[in-house]
Write a structure and sequence with these properties.
Layout (H helix, E strand, L loop, with lengths): L11 H8 L4 H9 L15 E6 L12 H10 L3 E6 L2 H12 L8 E3 L5 H9 L7 H7 L1 H9 L1 H7 L8 E6 L6 E5 H7 L7 H13 L11 E3 L3 H6 L14 E4 L2 E4 L4 H15 L12 H4 L10 E6 L14 E3 L4 E2 L2 E2 L1 E2 L5 E8 L6 H9 L4 H9 L6 E3 L5 E3 L3 H11 L10 E3 L1 H5 L4 H14 L2 E2 L9 H27 L6 H13 L2 H11 L1
Parallel strand pairs: 1-2, 1-3, 4-17, 6-9, 13-18
Antiparallel strand pairs: 3-14, 4-14, 5-9, 5-10, 7-8, 11-12, 15-16
Length: about 525
Protein backbone atom coordinates (compact mmCIF):
# COMPACT_ATOMS: atom_id res chain seq x y z
CA UNK A 1 0.00 0.00 0.00
CA UNK A 2 1.17 3.52 -0.68
CA UNK A 3 1.09 6.01 2.15
CA UNK A 4 1.14 9.74 1.56
CA UNK A 5 -0.17 11.12 4.79
CA UNK A 6 -3.79 9.97 4.83
CA UNK A 7 -5.36 9.23 8.18
CA UNK A 8 -5.76 5.59 9.09
CA UNK A 9 -7.82 6.01 12.24
CA UNK A 10 -10.91 8.13 12.67
CA UNK A 11 -11.28 11.57 14.17
CA UNK A 12 -13.25 14.64 13.23
CA UNK A 13 -10.28 16.72 12.15
CA UNK A 14 -8.96 14.01 9.85
CA UNK A 15 -12.35 13.37 8.27
CA UNK A 16 -12.83 17.09 7.73
CA UNK A 17 -9.58 17.29 5.79
CA UNK A 18 -10.53 14.32 3.61
CA UNK A 19 -13.88 15.92 2.85
CA UNK A 20 -12.18 19.19 1.87
CA UNK A 21 -9.76 17.83 -0.72
CA UNK A 22 -11.65 19.43 -3.57
CA UNK A 23 -11.11 22.45 -5.75
CA UNK A 24 -10.48 25.60 -3.69
CA UNK A 25 -12.29 28.01 -5.99
CA UNK A 26 -15.44 25.90 -5.80
CA UNK A 27 -15.20 25.91 -2.02
CA UNK A 28 -14.85 29.69 -1.87
CA UNK A 29 -17.58 30.35 -4.38
CA UNK A 30 -20.11 28.03 -2.83
CA UNK A 31 -19.41 29.46 0.62
CA UNK A 32 -19.89 33.06 -0.47
CA UNK A 33 -23.16 32.44 -2.35
CA UNK A 34 -26.35 32.06 -0.78
CA UNK A 35 -30.04 11.81 -8.66
CA UNK A 36 -31.20 9.13 -9.46
CA UNK A 37 -28.32 6.61 -9.80
CA UNK A 38 -28.64 3.35 -11.68
CA UNK A 39 -26.72 0.28 -12.68
CA UNK A 40 -25.10 0.38 -16.11
CA UNK A 41 -25.87 -2.30 -18.66
CA UNK A 42 -24.32 -3.41 -21.91
CA UNK A 43 -25.04 -0.95 -24.71
CA UNK A 44 -25.82 -2.03 -28.27
CA UNK A 45 -24.21 1.13 -29.65
CA UNK A 46 -20.86 0.07 -28.22
CA UNK A 47 -20.42 2.89 -25.73
CA UNK A 48 -18.06 2.39 -22.82
CA UNK A 49 -19.37 1.76 -19.33
CA UNK A 50 -18.11 4.02 -16.52
CA UNK A 51 -18.55 3.65 -12.75
CA UNK A 52 -17.47 6.03 -10.04
CA UNK A 53 -18.15 8.05 -6.92
CA UNK A 54 -19.31 11.67 -7.02
CA UNK A 55 -20.57 13.05 -3.73
CA UNK A 56 -24.30 13.75 -3.91
CA UNK A 57 -23.78 17.20 -2.39
CA UNK A 58 -22.35 18.40 -5.72
CA UNK A 59 -25.63 17.65 -7.54
CA UNK A 60 -23.63 16.31 -10.48
CA UNK A 61 -25.61 14.07 -12.80
CA UNK A 62 -23.12 12.47 -15.16
CA UNK A 63 -25.84 11.59 -17.66
CA UNK A 64 -26.62 15.24 -18.32
CA UNK A 65 -23.45 16.99 -17.15
CA UNK A 66 -21.98 19.17 -19.88
CA UNK A 67 -18.45 18.05 -19.07
CA UNK A 68 -19.12 14.58 -20.46
CA UNK A 69 -21.11 15.94 -23.41
CA UNK A 70 -18.25 18.25 -24.38
CA UNK A 71 -15.72 15.47 -23.95
CA UNK A 72 -17.87 13.36 -26.30
CA UNK A 73 -17.87 16.16 -28.88
CA UNK A 74 -14.10 16.35 -28.62
CA UNK A 75 -13.31 12.62 -28.62
CA UNK A 76 -16.36 10.83 -30.00
CA UNK A 77 -16.43 8.69 -26.84
CA UNK A 78 -19.59 8.33 -24.79
CA UNK A 79 -20.48 6.34 -21.71
CA UNK A 80 -23.18 4.46 -19.91
CA UNK A 81 -22.88 5.71 -16.34
CA UNK A 82 -23.04 3.85 -13.07
CA UNK A 83 -22.73 6.85 -10.75
CA UNK A 84 -22.65 6.57 -6.98
CA UNK A 85 -23.46 9.53 -4.76
CA UNK A 86 -22.71 7.96 -1.38
CA UNK A 87 -19.45 6.46 -0.23
CA UNK A 88 -21.05 3.48 1.50
CA UNK A 89 -22.71 2.34 -1.72
CA UNK A 90 -19.48 2.88 -3.67
CA UNK A 91 -17.46 0.88 -1.17
CA UNK A 92 -19.97 -1.96 -1.46
CA UNK A 93 -19.66 -1.84 -5.23
CA UNK A 94 -15.86 -1.95 -5.00
CA UNK A 95 -16.05 -4.85 -2.57
CA UNK A 96 -18.18 -6.84 -5.02
CA UNK A 97 -15.94 -5.81 -7.88
CA UNK A 98 -12.86 -7.01 -6.03
CA UNK A 99 -14.27 -10.52 -5.71
CA UNK A 100 -15.72 -10.51 -9.24
CA UNK A 101 -19.23 -10.57 -7.84
CA UNK A 102 -20.48 -7.92 -10.24
CA UNK A 103 -20.15 -7.07 -13.91
CA UNK A 104 -17.04 -5.03 -14.54
CA UNK A 105 -17.40 -1.58 -16.10
CA UNK A 106 -14.87 -0.56 -18.74
CA UNK A 107 -13.48 2.31 -16.70
CA UNK A 108 -13.47 3.68 -13.17
CA UNK A 109 -13.69 7.48 -12.86
CA UNK A 110 -13.35 9.39 -9.59
CA UNK A 111 -12.62 5.90 -8.37
CA UNK A 112 -11.00 6.72 -5.01
CA UNK A 113 -9.00 3.51 -5.26
CA UNK A 114 -6.70 2.74 -2.38
CA UNK A 115 -3.18 1.59 -3.17
CA UNK A 116 -4.11 -1.84 -1.81
CA UNK A 117 -7.12 -2.08 -4.12
CA UNK A 118 -4.98 -0.95 -7.04
CA UNK A 119 -2.36 -3.63 -6.41
CA UNK A 120 -4.79 -6.43 -5.58
CA UNK A 121 -7.06 -5.82 -8.54
CA UNK A 122 -4.10 -5.59 -10.88
CA UNK A 123 -2.74 -8.90 -9.58
CA UNK A 124 -6.18 -10.47 -9.98
CA UNK A 125 -6.49 -9.24 -13.56
CA UNK A 126 -9.35 -6.88 -12.80
CA UNK A 127 -7.38 -3.75 -13.70
CA UNK A 128 -4.85 -3.48 -16.51
CA UNK A 129 -1.41 -1.91 -16.75
CA UNK A 130 -1.72 1.42 -18.56
CA UNK A 131 2.00 1.96 -19.03
CA UNK A 132 2.12 0.31 -22.52
CA UNK A 133 -0.42 2.88 -23.74
CA UNK A 134 0.96 6.07 -22.21
CA UNK A 135 3.85 6.89 -24.54
CA UNK A 136 1.69 6.82 -27.67
CA UNK A 137 -1.73 7.76 -26.38
CA UNK A 138 -1.08 10.05 -23.38
CA UNK A 139 1.57 12.59 -24.47
CA UNK A 140 0.26 15.30 -22.15
CA UNK A 141 0.39 13.07 -19.10
CA UNK A 142 3.89 11.96 -20.09
CA UNK A 143 5.07 15.57 -20.21
CA UNK A 144 3.93 16.03 -16.62
CA UNK A 145 5.56 12.78 -15.50
CA UNK A 146 8.83 13.64 -17.21
CA UNK A 147 8.87 17.02 -15.52
CA UNK A 148 8.09 15.52 -12.12
CA UNK A 149 9.84 12.17 -11.65
CA UNK A 150 8.48 11.98 -8.11
CA UNK A 151 4.94 12.02 -9.51
CA UNK A 152 5.76 9.09 -11.77
CA UNK A 153 7.33 7.21 -8.89
CA UNK A 154 4.21 7.80 -6.78
CA UNK A 155 1.88 6.16 -9.31
CA UNK A 156 4.17 3.28 -10.30
CA UNK A 157 3.80 -0.14 -8.68
CA UNK A 158 6.92 -2.01 -7.56
CA UNK A 159 6.96 -4.10 -10.77
CA UNK A 160 6.84 -0.95 -12.95
CA UNK A 161 3.15 -1.08 -13.82
CA UNK A 162 1.04 2.10 -13.85
CA UNK A 163 -2.47 0.93 -13.07
CA UNK A 164 -4.41 3.90 -11.68
CA UNK A 165 -4.02 7.48 -12.87
CA UNK A 166 -4.11 10.33 -10.34
CA UNK A 167 -5.13 13.91 -9.91
CA UNK A 168 -2.15 16.26 -9.80
CA UNK A 169 -2.58 19.45 -7.81
CA UNK A 170 0.35 21.53 -6.62
CA UNK A 171 -1.92 23.28 -4.12
CA UNK A 172 -3.77 20.52 -2.32
CA UNK A 173 -5.74 21.83 0.63
CA UNK A 174 -3.87 21.54 3.89
CA UNK A 175 -4.61 21.87 7.57
CA UNK A 176 -3.34 25.44 7.61
CA UNK A 177 -3.33 27.76 10.63
CA UNK A 178 -5.65 30.75 10.26
CA UNK A 179 -5.01 33.73 12.52
CA UNK A 180 -7.38 36.61 13.24
CA UNK A 181 -5.52 39.53 11.68
CA UNK A 182 -8.28 41.93 12.73
CA UNK A 183 -7.33 41.14 16.32
CA UNK A 184 -3.65 41.64 15.55
CA UNK A 185 -4.40 45.06 14.10
CA UNK A 186 -6.68 45.99 16.99
CA UNK A 187 -3.96 45.13 19.50
CA UNK A 188 -1.07 46.52 17.45
CA UNK A 189 0.62 43.11 17.19
CA UNK A 190 2.84 41.69 14.47
CA UNK A 191 2.42 38.23 13.01
CA UNK A 192 4.10 35.75 15.37
CA UNK A 193 7.06 33.94 13.85
CA UNK A 194 8.28 31.66 16.68
CA UNK A 195 6.72 29.56 19.43
CA UNK A 196 7.58 32.21 22.02
CA UNK A 197 6.02 34.96 19.93
CA UNK A 198 2.92 32.87 19.38
CA UNK A 199 2.62 32.35 23.13
CA UNK A 200 2.67 36.10 23.69
CA UNK A 201 0.11 36.63 20.93
CA UNK A 202 -2.23 34.09 22.50
CA UNK A 203 -1.87 35.78 25.88
CA UNK A 204 -2.87 39.07 24.32
CA UNK A 205 -5.84 37.45 22.59
CA UNK A 206 -6.97 36.04 25.94
CA UNK A 207 -6.61 39.11 28.12
CA UNK A 208 -6.94 42.27 26.02
CA UNK A 209 -10.49 41.86 24.64
CA UNK A 210 -9.49 41.98 20.95
CA UNK A 211 -13.08 41.61 19.70
CA UNK A 212 -14.01 44.65 21.80
CA UNK A 213 -17.28 43.34 23.18
CA UNK A 214 -16.33 43.79 26.82
CA UNK A 215 -16.40 40.07 27.56
CA UNK A 216 -13.82 37.38 28.21
CA UNK A 217 -15.27 35.22 25.44
CA UNK A 218 -12.17 34.88 23.25
CA UNK A 219 -10.65 31.47 22.57
CA UNK A 220 -7.04 32.25 21.64
CA UNK A 221 -6.48 28.95 19.79
CA UNK A 222 -9.10 26.31 19.10
CA UNK A 223 -8.44 22.81 17.81
CA UNK A 224 -9.95 19.37 17.37
CA UNK A 225 -8.02 16.61 19.09
CA UNK A 226 -4.37 15.70 19.02
CA UNK A 227 -4.43 15.50 15.23
CA UNK A 228 -4.89 19.27 14.96
CA UNK A 229 -2.35 19.98 17.69
CA UNK A 230 0.29 17.92 15.90
CA UNK A 231 0.31 20.58 13.19
CA UNK A 232 1.71 22.94 15.82
CA UNK A 233 4.65 20.57 16.19
CA UNK A 234 6.34 22.40 13.34
CA UNK A 235 7.13 25.11 15.93
CA UNK A 236 9.68 22.61 17.25
CA UNK A 237 10.74 21.29 13.84
CA UNK A 238 8.36 18.30 14.01
CA UNK A 239 6.60 16.97 10.93
CA UNK A 240 5.56 13.36 10.41
CA UNK A 241 2.96 11.24 8.71
CA UNK A 242 0.11 9.57 10.57
CA UNK A 243 2.46 6.81 11.67
CA UNK A 244 4.67 9.38 13.42
CA UNK A 245 7.55 8.68 11.05
CA UNK A 246 9.56 10.91 8.77
CA UNK A 247 12.12 10.13 6.07
CA UNK A 248 15.06 12.53 5.80
CA UNK A 249 18.15 11.93 3.68
CA UNK A 250 17.16 8.31 3.18
CA UNK A 251 16.77 7.59 6.90
CA UNK A 252 13.44 6.89 8.58
CA UNK A 253 12.84 7.82 12.20
CA UNK A 254 9.95 8.39 14.59
CA UNK A 255 9.30 11.77 16.14
CA UNK A 256 7.54 10.31 19.17
CA UNK A 257 10.53 9.76 21.45
CA UNK A 258 12.59 12.77 20.40
CA UNK A 259 13.67 15.60 22.68
CA UNK A 260 11.82 17.96 20.36
CA UNK A 261 8.55 16.13 20.94
CA UNK A 262 9.04 16.32 24.69
CA UNK A 263 9.69 20.07 24.46
CA UNK A 264 6.65 20.46 22.21
CA UNK A 265 4.37 18.66 24.65
CA UNK A 266 5.74 20.72 27.54
CA UNK A 267 4.92 23.89 25.58
CA UNK A 268 1.38 22.65 24.88
CA UNK A 269 0.95 21.94 28.58
CA UNK A 270 1.97 25.52 29.33
CA UNK A 271 -0.59 26.82 26.83
CA UNK A 272 -3.23 24.54 28.35
CA UNK A 273 -2.53 25.58 31.92
CA UNK A 274 -2.77 29.27 30.97
CA UNK A 275 -6.04 28.71 29.10
CA UNK A 276 -4.49 29.79 25.81
CA UNK A 277 -5.77 26.77 23.89
CA UNK A 278 -9.35 25.53 23.80
CA UNK A 279 -10.23 23.63 26.98
CA UNK A 280 -12.87 21.75 24.97
CA UNK A 281 -10.46 20.87 22.17
CA UNK A 282 -10.23 17.20 23.09
CA UNK A 283 -13.99 16.72 23.35
CA UNK A 284 -15.66 18.99 20.78
CA UNK A 285 -16.27 18.42 17.06
CA UNK A 286 -15.87 20.77 14.13
CA UNK A 287 -19.64 20.80 13.71
CA UNK A 288 -20.14 22.14 17.23
CA UNK A 289 -17.31 24.70 17.03
CA UNK A 290 -18.29 26.19 13.69
CA UNK A 291 -19.68 29.75 13.75
CA UNK A 292 -22.55 30.02 11.27
CA UNK A 293 -24.23 33.31 12.19
CA UNK A 294 -22.86 35.97 9.85
CA UNK A 295 -23.61 38.65 12.45
CA UNK A 296 -21.85 36.85 15.29
CA UNK A 297 -18.87 38.40 17.03
CA UNK A 298 -15.76 36.39 16.23
CA UNK A 299 -14.33 34.58 19.24
CA UNK A 300 -11.50 32.58 17.67
CA UNK A 301 -7.94 33.83 17.47
CA UNK A 302 -6.41 30.88 15.63
CA UNK A 303 -7.86 27.68 14.20
CA UNK A 304 -6.77 25.00 11.74
CA UNK A 305 -8.49 24.07 8.51
CA UNK A 306 -8.31 24.12 4.69
CA UNK A 307 -9.89 27.60 4.52
CA UNK A 308 -11.36 30.05 7.08
CA UNK A 309 -14.84 29.12 5.86
CA UNK A 310 -14.57 25.73 7.48
CA UNK A 311 -14.99 27.55 10.80
CA UNK A 312 -16.45 31.02 10.26
CA UNK A 313 -19.07 32.62 7.96
CA UNK A 314 -18.00 33.94 4.58
CA UNK A 315 -18.70 37.48 5.77
CA UNK A 316 -16.00 37.06 8.44
CA UNK A 317 -13.34 35.22 6.47
CA UNK A 318 -11.45 38.42 5.68
CA UNK A 319 -10.59 38.67 9.36
CA UNK A 320 -8.37 35.60 8.97
CA UNK A 321 -5.11 35.03 7.14
CA UNK A 322 -2.88 31.98 6.87
CA UNK A 323 -0.17 32.03 9.52
CA UNK A 324 3.14 31.13 7.95
CA UNK A 325 5.01 28.25 9.61
CA UNK A 326 6.88 29.33 12.69
CA UNK A 327 10.67 29.37 12.64
CA UNK A 328 12.61 26.74 14.60
CA UNK A 329 16.37 26.37 14.59
CA UNK A 330 16.62 28.80 11.69
CA UNK A 331 14.13 27.15 9.34
CA UNK A 332 10.43 26.94 8.59
CA UNK A 333 8.85 23.56 7.99
CA UNK A 334 5.27 22.35 7.81
CA UNK A 335 3.55 19.08 7.07
CA UNK A 336 2.27 18.62 3.53
CA UNK A 337 -0.84 16.54 4.12
CA UNK A 338 -1.11 14.73 0.79
CA UNK A 339 1.61 16.02 -1.49
CA UNK A 340 0.81 16.89 -5.10
CA UNK A 341 -0.63 13.48 -6.01
CA UNK A 342 -4.09 12.10 -5.23
CA UNK A 343 -3.96 8.44 -6.14
CA UNK A 344 -6.55 6.14 -7.66
CA UNK A 345 -8.71 8.55 -9.67
CA UNK A 346 -8.93 6.60 -12.95
CA UNK A 347 -8.41 2.97 -13.98
CA UNK A 348 -9.36 0.71 -16.87
CA UNK A 349 -10.60 -2.81 -16.28
CA UNK A 350 -9.87 -5.99 -18.20
CA UNK A 351 -13.42 -5.79 -19.55
CA UNK A 352 -12.47 -2.90 -21.83
CA UNK A 353 -11.95 -3.80 -25.50
CA UNK A 354 -10.20 -0.55 -26.45
CA UNK A 355 -8.00 0.78 -23.62
CA UNK A 356 -6.09 3.05 -25.99
CA UNK A 357 -9.24 5.05 -26.72
CA UNK A 358 -9.90 5.64 -23.03
CA UNK A 359 -6.28 6.61 -22.40
CA UNK A 360 -6.55 9.19 -25.19
CA UNK A 361 -9.81 10.41 -23.63
CA UNK A 362 -8.35 10.93 -20.16
CA UNK A 363 -5.09 12.41 -21.47
CA UNK A 364 -6.90 15.63 -22.39
CA UNK A 365 -7.60 16.22 -18.69
CA UNK A 366 -3.86 16.54 -18.08
CA UNK A 367 -3.74 19.70 -20.22
CA UNK A 368 -4.44 23.29 -19.26
CA UNK A 369 -7.54 23.28 -21.46
CA UNK A 370 -8.71 20.04 -19.89
CA UNK A 371 -8.21 21.57 -16.46
CA UNK A 372 -10.40 24.50 -17.49
CA UNK A 373 -13.13 22.23 -18.83
CA UNK A 374 -13.28 20.15 -15.65
CA UNK A 375 -13.12 23.08 -13.27
CA UNK A 376 -14.91 25.93 -15.01
CA UNK A 377 -16.52 24.67 -18.20
CA UNK A 378 -16.05 26.06 -21.69
CA UNK A 379 -14.20 29.31 -22.32
CA UNK A 380 -16.49 31.93 -23.79
CA UNK A 381 -19.60 30.10 -22.71
CA UNK A 382 -19.16 29.45 -19.00
CA UNK A 383 -16.11 31.56 -18.17
CA UNK A 384 -14.03 34.26 -19.86
CA UNK A 385 -10.46 35.49 -19.62
CA UNK A 386 -10.07 39.18 -18.87
CA UNK A 387 -7.52 41.49 -20.47
CA UNK A 388 -5.37 41.40 -17.34
CA UNK A 389 -5.06 37.61 -17.50
CA UNK A 390 -7.62 36.87 -14.80
CA UNK A 391 -10.75 34.88 -15.50
CA UNK A 392 -14.33 35.06 -14.29
CA UNK A 393 -17.64 33.28 -14.67
CA UNK A 394 -20.11 34.42 -17.31
CA UNK A 395 -23.09 33.96 -14.99
CA UNK A 396 -23.72 35.69 -11.70
CA UNK A 397 -22.24 33.99 -8.61
CA UNK A 398 -25.63 32.75 -7.40
CA UNK A 399 -26.27 31.03 -10.73
CA UNK A 400 -22.78 29.55 -10.74
CA UNK A 401 -23.26 28.19 -7.24
CA UNK A 402 -26.69 26.69 -7.88
CA UNK A 403 -26.41 25.60 -11.52
CA UNK A 404 -23.08 25.95 -13.28
CA UNK A 405 -21.00 24.05 -10.71
CA UNK A 406 -23.50 21.19 -10.76
CA UNK A 407 -24.32 21.02 -14.46
CA UNK A 408 -21.11 22.09 -16.19
CA UNK A 409 -18.07 21.22 -14.04
CA UNK A 410 -16.87 17.93 -12.61
CA UNK A 411 -13.81 18.73 -10.47
CA UNK A 412 -15.40 18.95 -7.03
CA UNK A 413 -16.98 16.13 -5.07
CA UNK A 414 -13.95 13.86 -5.25
CA UNK A 415 -10.66 13.59 -7.10
CA UNK A 416 -11.15 13.40 -10.85
CA UNK A 417 -8.18 12.39 -13.01
CA UNK A 418 -6.29 15.34 -14.42
CA UNK A 419 -4.16 18.31 -13.61
CA UNK A 420 -5.37 21.13 -11.38
CA UNK A 421 -3.45 24.16 -12.57
CA UNK A 422 -2.10 26.42 -9.85
CA UNK A 423 -1.95 29.29 -12.34
CA UNK A 424 -5.66 28.92 -13.07
CA UNK A 425 -6.50 28.99 -9.36
CA UNK A 426 -4.33 32.05 -8.79
CA UNK A 427 -5.97 34.02 -11.60
CA UNK A 428 -9.62 33.72 -10.64
CA UNK A 429 -10.97 37.28 -10.66
CA UNK A 430 -12.04 37.33 -7.04
CA UNK A 431 -10.11 39.09 -4.30
CA UNK A 432 -10.97 36.59 -1.57
CA UNK A 433 -10.03 33.58 -3.64
CA UNK A 434 -6.80 35.15 -4.87
CA UNK A 435 -5.82 36.04 -1.32
CA UNK A 436 -6.51 32.55 0.04
CA UNK A 437 -4.73 30.79 -2.81
CA UNK A 438 -1.73 33.11 -2.50
CA UNK A 439 -1.50 32.58 1.25
CA UNK A 440 -1.86 28.82 0.95
CA UNK A 441 0.84 28.81 -1.70
CA UNK A 442 3.15 30.61 0.74
CA UNK A 443 2.50 27.89 3.33
CA UNK A 444 3.08 25.27 0.64
CA UNK A 445 6.57 26.64 0.01
CA UNK A 446 7.53 25.52 3.54
CA UNK A 447 5.65 22.23 3.47
CA UNK A 448 7.28 18.83 3.13
CA UNK A 449 5.77 15.40 2.57
CA UNK A 450 7.12 13.54 5.62
CA UNK A 451 7.24 10.19 3.86
CA UNK A 452 6.95 9.58 0.11
CA UNK A 453 4.27 7.39 -1.42
CA UNK A 454 5.32 3.76 -1.27
CA UNK A 455 3.54 0.51 -2.10
CA UNK A 456 3.82 -2.21 0.54
CA UNK A 457 3.28 -5.91 0.23
CA UNK A 458 0.09 -7.19 1.80
CA UNK A 459 2.11 -8.82 4.55
CA UNK A 460 4.01 -5.64 5.48
CA UNK A 461 0.86 -3.60 5.27
CA UNK A 462 -0.91 -5.96 7.66
CA UNK A 463 2.01 -5.90 10.09
CA UNK A 464 2.19 -2.09 10.04
CA UNK A 465 -1.55 -1.89 10.63
CA UNK A 466 -1.23 -4.22 13.62
CA UNK A 467 1.62 -2.16 15.07
CA UNK A 468 -0.27 1.07 14.45
CA UNK A 469 -3.27 -0.31 16.32
CA UNK A 470 -1.00 -0.71 19.35
CA UNK A 471 1.14 2.40 19.03
CA UNK A 472 -1.20 5.17 17.85
CA UNK A 473 -3.98 4.97 20.48
CA UNK A 474 -1.45 4.73 23.30
CA UNK A 475 0.74 7.55 21.98
CA UNK A 476 -2.19 9.87 21.33
CA UNK A 477 -3.83 9.30 24.71
CA UNK A 478 -0.57 9.66 26.58
CA UNK A 479 0.29 12.87 24.77
CA UNK A 480 -3.17 14.25 25.55
CA UNK A 481 -2.55 13.52 29.24
CA UNK A 482 0.82 15.26 29.03
CA UNK A 483 -0.87 18.30 27.48
CA UNK A 484 -3.67 18.49 30.05
CA UNK A 485 -1.40 17.66 32.98
CA UNK A 486 -3.35 14.54 33.94
CA UNK A 487 0.05 12.88 33.71
CA UNK A 488 2.94 15.17 34.70
CA UNK A 489 5.70 15.36 32.12
CA UNK A 490 8.95 14.58 33.89
CA UNK A 491 11.95 12.29 33.44
CA UNK A 492 10.16 9.32 34.96
CA UNK A 493 6.95 9.59 32.94
CA UNK A 494 8.83 10.40 29.74
CA UNK A 495 11.08 7.37 30.13
CA UNK A 496 8.02 5.21 30.71
CA UNK A 497 6.38 6.67 27.58
CA UNK A 498 9.44 5.89 25.45
CA UNK A 499 9.87 2.43 26.96
CA UNK A 500 6.22 1.51 26.40
CA UNK A 501 6.39 2.63 22.77
CA UNK A 502 9.41 0.40 22.25
CA UNK A 503 7.52 -2.51 23.82
CA UNK A 504 4.59 -1.86 21.50
CA UNK A 505 6.88 -2.17 18.47
CA UNK A 506 7.95 1.36 17.54
CA UNK A 507 11.41 0.20 16.45
CA UNK A 508 9.87 -2.48 14.24
CA UNK A 509 7.51 0.10 12.75
CA UNK A 510 10.44 2.34 11.83
CA UNK A 511 12.34 -0.62 10.37
CA UNK A 512 9.40 -1.59 8.15
CA UNK A 513 9.14 1.93 6.77
CA UNK A 514 12.89 1.99 6.24
CA UNK A 515 12.66 -1.21 4.19
CA UNK A 516 9.85 0.27 2.12
CA UNK A 517 11.88 3.41 1.49
Amino acid sequence: MGYNGHIDYSNEGAMQMRRCLSWLIAVVLLATCASALGEGTADPAGRFTMAGLDDASTNHDWESNMFFRRMEERTGISFIFDQYGERKAWEEFKLNMGVRNTELPDVLFKADLTPRETQDWYEKGILIDLRPYLEEHAPNLMILLQGHPEWREAITLPDGAIVALPNFNELQNNNAMWINTAWLQELGLDMPSTADELTETLRAFKTLDPNRNGRRDETPLTFTGMWDLRYLGHAFGLVSNDYYVIAEDGEVSSILTTDENRAFLAWLNQLWQEGLIDQMGFSSLDTTRRITDKDAVMTYGIFMGPTPMNMVPADSMNQYSALLPLTYDGRQVYRDLTGDVVLGAFAITSECDDPAALVRWVDFLYTEEGCHLAQAGLEGEDFVFNEDGTWDWVEEPEVVATTVMADVTIADGGAAPGYSSLDFQLHFDDHDTHRLVTELQAVKQCAVLPYPIRYLTAEKEARIAALQAEIAPYAEQQMIWFVTGDVPLNDETWDEFCRTLTEKGLDEMVALWQEAL
